[in-house]
Batch of 2 targets.
Target 1
Amino acid sequence: MEEDKYFNTQQLYGFLPSENKEVGKLATLALDMRWSWNHATDKLWRQLDPELWDQTQNPWLVLQTVSRNRVEQLLKDPLFKEKLDALLEKREKATNSSAWFQEKYPQSGLTHLAYFSMEFMLNEALPIYVGGLGNVAGDQLKSASDLGVPVTGIGLFYQQGYFRQEIDHDGNQKAIHAFNDPGQVPIIPLRKPDGEWLRITVQLGGFSLWLRTWEVQAGRVKLFLLDSNDPANLPVHRGITNELYGGGPELRIKQEIILGIGGWKLLAEMDLKPEVCHLNEGHSGFVVLARAAEIMKEKRCSFEEALFISRPGNLFTTHTAVPAGFDHFHPHLMENMLGQYARDVLGIGLERLMALGRQNPGNSEEYFNMAFLALRGCGAVNGVSQLHGIVSRELFSCLFPRWPLNEIPIGHVTNGVHMPTWDNEFSDKIWTNACGKDRWRGDLADMEPAMCQLSDEALWDLRSICRENLVHFIRSRFERQSRLGGRRNHLNLKIEDIFDPHVLTLGFARRFVSYKRPNLLLWDKKRLMHLLNHKSFPLQLVLAGKAGPGDETGKALIKEWIQFIEENSLHQKVVFLSDYDMGITEQLVSGVDVWMNTPKRPWEACGTSGMKVLVNGGLNLSTLDGWWAEAFSPEVGWAIGNAADTKDNGLSEEREAELLYDMLEYQVIPEFYERKPDGLPLRWLERIRKSMSRLAPVFSANRTVREYTDNYYLPAAQQYLERSAGITGKGREIFEIQQQIRQHWDKISFGDIQTETKGEFHVFRVSLVLEEIHPEWVSVEIFAENGNGGMPEKIKMERVENMDDHRHQVYTGKVPANRPLSHFTIRVIPFFKELALPLESSYILWQR
Ligand SMILES: *Cc1c(COP(=O)(O)O)cnc(C)c1O
């Protein structure tokens, strides 16, 4: 069996097979993307080809590119072989040992979770991402691997991924499409136990579409990818998975059908039965249909019952702060793409399917909203920061008419980043000394006190070396891109004059979209120039970012920056790096002193780039939006504007720009240059110490994944298992009651209501006409808003027993009379311990 642990090279794709089993061992290491955050194997790859390694840091590319002769020759070296075997053994231990999840939940009902996402950002070697959403997916997969949470990712393999960016010297963005050769990225065909490559089919607008399947290994977890570039397909179908977020709604819905329905089918073909599906954004919403379809077959039940059974096992994470962020599909498109599926597979008409994606199911004009489908197919919903939770409750409140905003059933789990991915060799050393090698694999309990002990010298050495390395990176990129643009000779600049390793370095890199306001710093160009050119306390600024291919406003923002640099010959102090990707991020978050973020509150759902600097001792300067609204305190960084408790902070753009300049000029810059005789900026270093020790643990994906596991995954698995086992007994009953409530709720009405104040209490007596609704299915409550926007006061009323006619009921209750009687009102809501409310039954009747 020994050999089975390692790849048989014949099974790989686009790789020269070898009789030599040792080559299979190398391939096994090179195809485990653990190398993207754990650098134990770096030296081995470097030995194969130092130059190629330094250029790419991509083991799979190195192994494929180096001549087979060289590989065979090295494999004859006993020292090399010994090293290889030791690394494989270490890898095996890391994969099979028990981790946080196994220790904390040894008897867990959660054996498998499928995580669906349109994009995954694991490493630039596998470019199937655009930005934030892929970052969240990739970093959470990696942390799940660290923690031993049994997750499998499901995504798409894009032949072109997202466009690559070139910028000409006038500032025009050009989109370039590079090709992802599946034989040259670290993926392999997904094979059935007998070795055959798994192909699956989905139905798409009357055609049967073949999908190829791929497998990515990332530590303990796997990521399965689907693509339609199978030669058996019609040429037009082969291109469906070409581009990420390319084309219009028709292409998008096809991709989403592949992801949701194809993704579920893939799991079924592999005999994998996850208890929980996590939908990262609404794109993968169709999976709730496919999962229900399978249950229909298994339990021989209707679609409605099947959806009811599977619902608690689905979790929906929403990522957008505006309605336009949701995918909407025209009814005709839905009919073309899914009409037949609705009728033949789900046994429901198109109208019922459409109803799942509409605010008003009766409105046949309304488009199909993927987020609404996800919400109606999931047993829990969450936003991605505290503030985004509030924003999301408002966004989805239209689906819960007459419910108070703070009872809209959407929670939040604040995103975090995978720290081992974003640290560098120098910060890694510091963290290892303070907190040990396994620091990101446990519950992080002792991290803060340990990090508080770091000396000023150690922190300043770290910052100095990181900044210097960044400066070298910026120089070499600058050199490369001015050569590419044919400008190298015109600029007449010595490369050593680009950036200064001792100058305060500000970073700003993100998607160039208007709500992120990448030009806020350009509001008053004179003032910015003044800061950049200060004789004693200068500033330098590195920028990067792509504008969406069709986003002219975003492109204009890039142009504004380029022209600002060109017109004022600021190349030595301001550099715009083209082709922002994960590799650039790694360098920037490692070296900048201050990471700047200027979104318009509350448009940034969370934001993650600023979290990446924490582990390296970078500091944040940001508007109070997304994660920063909950992370900021005056000791750990800087806020632009104050902590307004309104969602929109009410400041004009001009005022915010002014506050940003003031913050830089009067606080950030002076603090950086305020040095003790030994050259150390003590206040600055104290701020770094606080930011690293307090914020890095909290905004790590380790914390995020533990929170999802404790609060969402485990309850979801348990509720799903209960419902799925119980559908013949109690579960069936609840399902029937839910249907009854749907049919008869409108018939409930209030009868006589008496109130009086007796001593210290307001006393209520209410009669209620329930008609077909059984008294045990409802809860009658005395309700009052909490004046401070907190959770309302809710007191359950008692039913007066022994009524002859269950259609008429009387309820009594009392509340302390410390508020006026007029604050209180009576309401009736459904009542079930077994249902997520009001998510699964959103009826409500108010006295007034
Ligand atoms: C981290 C990252 C993002 C997400 O950053 P935001 O804070 O959402 O702007 C986007 N793109 C890349 C390449 C990243 O590394």
Note: Residues 131-132, 135, 510, 580-582, 585, 607-609, 612 surround pyridoxal-5'-phosphate (CB under 6 Å).
Target 2
Amino acid sequence: MAEDPNDWETATRLIRGGLDRSPHGETAEPIYLTQSFVYDSPESADARFAGTEPGFIYARYGNPTVKMFEDRLALLEGAEACRAAASGMAAVQLAISGLVRAGDHIVSGKALFGSCRWILNNWAPRFGVETTLVHAPDIAAWKAAVRPNTKLFFLETPANPLLEVCDIAAICAIAREIGAKVVVDNVFATPIFQSPLKLGADLVVYSATKHIDGQGRVLGGALLGDLAVIEENFKDLIRHTGPSLSPFNAWVLFKGLETLDLRVRRQTETAGVLADLIGDHAKVGAVRYPGRADHPQAEIIARQMSGAGTVVAFDLGSRDAAFRFLNALELVDISNNLGDAKSMATHPNTTTHRSMTEEQRLEIGLTEGWVRLSVGLEGPKDLARDLSRALDAA
Ligand SMILES: *Cc1c(COP(=O)(O)O)cnc(C)c1O
């Protein structure tokens, strides 16, 4: 009996999924660093362009190494299809521009990665697309925001930077009633801990730059969903606008997937320990971590996530205290990246979320004292010592 990859455990999917060996039988996957492809005959070229003969045409449309990455990630996500993009933002931009037209309306959660919010607030209006931003955990707010021309719901959960969580299944149910599509940015949960497609979402987007690489090397992104949805809305858009992932980056990300499950689980285990240590410290006003019972949406988290993730946020009360904390760190880096093997801390107000107005930040509860910590793979005791020392200094 031939192995069916759909029957494999996650660990096997991540090691064996998508593998397309060349005739040389190499053990490590090949990098096909090629832009274009040659044909045996003009008849063959004709048939490839007509779509009647399988095979690659041009790397803007597809490349064998990129396809290996797409196939492995689709198998992990349990999605029919995956299309890679050059960055997480290229994937988000693709998802939004493929699903709306001038005159359409979008409803989105307020708490979003800064660039996602920029696309909705500053870019989409140029093309006649309006967005209503809602407090995502409030289901009634999604319903109230719907207009006759609402075509898309966009959400991020847990959201950056304060780990606010919303109910994917309940939001998808509202979207289904009105015939709108749902796109979920699943970066913080990772494909290991949350499967939005199974909860009713039409598309899931990733910044592969984060946990999928996980070692600070390359940018990448991905868009996953049903084959029919992807073909209908994105096939031509990708071909003609070129948000394509480089084969080299695809190879790095493909190898990153091999260890994704191990890394994310280990980082999450450490994050849980550190979230409690941070929460117990006298200098900390509030800690936000999806694994803690005091998370405002703990009940939704128990239903829709199988793990709490690698990011912790906490409030030190003022910008000065947050900066004293960051300056006292010796092991943890000051960096705005996340999901990396190296632990990193950032002050969102002055970095990732500085393009928001003060008022917009206050709407999502982001005051001056918040710090976001991405927990890496270092020894938990070393991290605990570094954080305790820096918290004392705050
Ligand atoms: C980083 C990030 C993105 C953007 O990804 P890039 O690869 O940096 O373009 C989008 N959404 C979320 C939630 C992110 O954390």
Note: The chain has two domains: 5-257, 261-393.
